[in-house]
Amino acid sequence: MCCVSTRFRLFGCLVGVLAVGTSAEAVTSKFTLKVVKFTRNNVTTTLNPPVAKFEARPGDRIEAEIHVSGWGPDLAPSGLLRTFQAQILGNTGVQSGQEGLILPVGWLAPFDPPVPIPCTLDSDCPEDFHHCDVVRGCRGRHACTTNADCTHPEYPVCFPVPGCAAAAHNPDSGAFINLNHPQWVHAGFGVVRAVDTSTLDYRWASTVQDSDGVIDGGVPKYCGTLLLQVSNDACGEFGFAFRSAGSFIADPSISPVTAIPALESLRINIPCPLAPVGCDPTNCAVDARIPHDRLNATPRIGWGPAADPIDVLFGGPTAGLTPSSFQVTQSGAGVPPTIVSATPVGNLVTIVLNRVITFRQHTCIRHIASDRRVCLGNMPGDTNGDGTSEGADVLALADELRGTFDPPMEIWQCDIDRNGMCEPLDFVSEVDVLNGESVFDVFKNPPFLVACPSNLP
Predict the structure, then answer these.
(1) 8-state DSSP, 282
(2) Are strands 221-230 and 175-176 parallel, antiparallel or unpaired?
(3) Is the model's pLDDT at 447 over the cut of 80?
(4) Which of 135, 175, 247, 433 is 20–30 Å from 374 (CA)?
(5) Is residue 155 very low, low, confident or very high in pLDDT (cuts 50, 70, 90)?
(6) pTM of the model
(7) For the domain 16-108+170-268, what is the CATH code?
(8) Is the dihedral of CA 53, 59, 60, 64 positive or negative?
(9) Is the pLDDT of residue 219 over 60?
């Protein structure tokens, strides 16, 4: 008999003596995480059968359940299920879509980035992961001793776990084991059970105390519930996978036979509104090439007209988009170019402007419906793309030709004379552009009025 006083001791009691290892070559047991019901616009719908792939909408509340099945052969010779633990990769799952979040109900605390972000100071970290741990990188979670340690205005209260959080943080309301569920795997037995919500990688576990365990009856059995809230800005596919190292089943032996079941993830897709996701040339690229022929200041050469149009890439089919679907703006004074044509093909729209984009400015093409804009700069001589044409750009061009500029330059950065190649002759054109030789204007030193104003995520 285990005596427990905390969630963590309980998990130690449940699984601390088990040596996890696969008991059979062919795994027949399985954990699944499936949606059983959802609430949308205050209307709750039950799904029968439950689904592991679900199309949601922003604002939905989703109820998912974990079930286990097919354990008999994997726990031979007894075939009895005494203990289970199922763990999800929640920290990754909640932020795995294209935009927004799907958080467990009751989770009102920060979390960590899915990929480590190196840092030295808190100021090195993005707002969502505002605390710098010099060993592990930027973190959302922040350990604390008292409320005074919690300086972020959204998370002013110190909890033992996960640390600083909102006062209403209550993750147990969104992850639990319903002992009255008609398919509860340990129904009718005395059990020690627990749900660990100390991090977003939640764990559900139970072990039978007064019996050898449960016979495999050939039907999936309930192990736990997860409630999820889709944020109002969420879109894309979110995946909630099981953590194999934290998911297993065990029989009642003194030296338990344990197995890692097959693991079926939950996939939740929220259609994204049609919006730009990039462009060709690359979003925020700066055209450093000569603005016109060396001996003739007209016509101007560059991005925009039919000879060098701009392709705007969308996240889905663009059929039906027209010039009126877009607005052209620029980062400084003057009248921006206008759209001559907008041709949708697949996920692209090819934009043709009435003239070259404006010098020393960024020109942006805004998709009106989504309010997303791609932007391109025009700054002859600015090979390193920092917004200013100056002597440092000559050195950057030299580094590129030596193969040491990192990352390597795009053609619009180093092919200054527009002959299709980046070569030593481009030095001549670079110096001429900077100093106003031939019929070029002097482009040395005047910076862009503002940084690139694109708002793509």
Answers:
(1) P
(2) antiparallel
(3) no
(4) 433
(5) very high
(6) 0.71
(7) 2.60.40.680
(8) positive
(9) yes
